[in-house]
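User: Teach me something about this protein's shape.
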Amino acid sequence: MTNASSRPTEPDDVIDLAALFSVLWAKKLWIAASVVVALALGAFYVLRTVPVFQAQGLLQLETKSGSLALPAGMQELVGSTGDSPGQTEMEIMKSRMVIGAAVQELGLDRYAYARPLPVLGRLPLRLGLSGLGDGFLRRFQWGNESLTIGELELPEDWLGKNMVLTITGPDSFAVTLPDGSELTGRLRERLSLPGRGFSLMVDDLAGPADREFVFGRMSVQAAVSAIGKTFSVSETPPKSSILRVTYNDPDPRRAEQVLDAISRAYVEQNILRSAAEAQNSLSFINNQLPEAEKAVTAAQAALNAYRQQQKSVDLDYETRSLLERATQIETELNALRLKEDELKKRYTINHPVYEALLENRAGLQAQLDELRQTSSALPETQKEVFNLSRNLEVAQQVYLQLLNRAEELKVVRASTVGSVRIVDTAYSNGVKIAPRSSLILALSMVLGMMLSIGGVLVQHFLRRGIRGAQEIEQAGLPVFATVTFSPEAANHRTRKGDLPIMALERPDDVVVEALRSLRTSLHFGMIDAKTNTVLLTSAAPDAGKSFTAINLATVAAQAGQKVCVIDADMRRGCLRRYFGKPKGTPGLAELLAREKSLDEVLIPGPVEGLSAILTGRFPPNPSELLMRAEFAALLADLDTRFDLIIIDSPPALAVTDPVVIGRSVGATILVARHLETVLPEVEAVRRAFETAGARITGAVLNGYRIEEGSRYGGQYHYYNYRYSYRSDKS
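Assistant: First, the predicted structure itself:
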């Protein structure tokens, strides 16, 4: 035969899934209730949340600009966009410049909405409970109201502050301003406060009297920030030059309007930006034209004046050739100067394009210096005419170049179409994107289940209470019986009024069978006892001593024994409730105080052979009464009259009464409640009795929950009372 101690034990870190499942199964109703509550909270959140719809649009970034239709010589002014700078364009589209233009166009800095119900929000509206909007609830939103504000001007210090509009009639209303003052107005009539800069015009108003609307105006920056939180733009797929734009709003039509306004503002600024370079060059040339015209006039006047002075001097062929060559070089130099002014805005001085221009200008300047050196050998008259004619030719060429360039830039500016086009205008399919009801409800259910399961497991692992009889036995106390948990027995702990005796009400219950087992164990365990007296005590209250005492006494009497049960808890004794006696019925207190005799306090029980002594009135000194010789004499007298005396005493760690009684009894039984009584308490009770010269005979594990599989000494033991052996009464 194999010794149990020689069996291999499981390591302590092994997790028994079956045991954990049994723990969860025991709390299945609590877990189910938690899931239902979580689902209810999720449904409440979904119903009270304002639904959100999404509008979508599509834009394309062009890789070529409108300069393709221009002459090759003019395309350099317009340039080419090259590869699509998607990231840059997305940031520009989300900028305050673009969104702010949409805010100004649609008046998105204004807001107006019916006052929602506190906490419930739109829940009654979503459930169609508009009929409840009467009485003091009339001022809240119920779905049968609307407000359209056509004009709203506010002083700066009122921006961002809410005002309240209350309907007072079919076409009249009252407005409560931020400073607390109140104004009255009518539909489609301007309501103003001239000295304060306030102006309001209501275009449309519908709803019952007393319905309230909250309205106001925020700063443009705040409106841009609010819209930016629900507006998004992405390049899909990446580097495809395709921008997908979305905007979320509770109103699908409003979402489309806002998204279209943002797209239009972006396209418009893109066109203006594409034409900005041509416009800047045109502005520069327009500023130079008056000066060039003055230079032509001055050069013409100087040449004419000299010719009149010299009597019409003409240039010979050689001198005219020099003049034409010098004029050509001067014209090229002036063209380079204009080009340099444009390049300064685009490149640094070290850029190759800029360096090439400087090198070209230096070559032309050298040729011009050489011509000037040649002309210095001409006669004085020819030299002067040469210089004046050259100045006139150069001035005329500069003026003509500026005129030609101005016309070219006008064509460039007019032909600019931007590098963006709207492929798809904003569209909303009317399907809400938030709240995502199915996902929220699923997450609520999962979260409720996880939290409840986690709570059950945490409670299970944090419990320090006794989980099985072996723990008590390892502490040195034999377990006489394990009484399973019974809901009917648990109700005795909180029930008011008289209490039923379970051994009489449900004699076939497994709890009563466990008490019969206790009766048998005591019968054989007390054969050598000096007295037939049994003391029932516990470490703390609510362990089930009184329930165990009265039912043990009943099953013992049913077995033919003469039994007396004594309620020795003269502080909170409750055995009187099992006998239907009122509080203050004479009992042990009066007997020990010598106010009553034994026969006067001894009352018969509901079973033949069962008698009881109740506590009587609660005395101020119960411990002193129990230490009197009268108590020992009482036990000796009862021992001659009864086969079994059961004493129900108070908790041993709370008062010293059980220790006092324990010196005079034949056996002491400690009642421990499953999962509530902790092992150190059991050891403390045992040490208290041993210190007083008494001892604990054994223990009863009460309220054992079958489903709480426990682990002892590396072995798993499950107490399963699924089987009951009852008489066949059919």
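Now, about its shape. Confidence is low (pLDDT under 50) at residues 1-13, 64-83, 709-730. The CA atoms of residues 31 and 455 lie 9 Å apart. If you'd like, I can walk through any region in more detail.
User: That's plenty for now, thanks!
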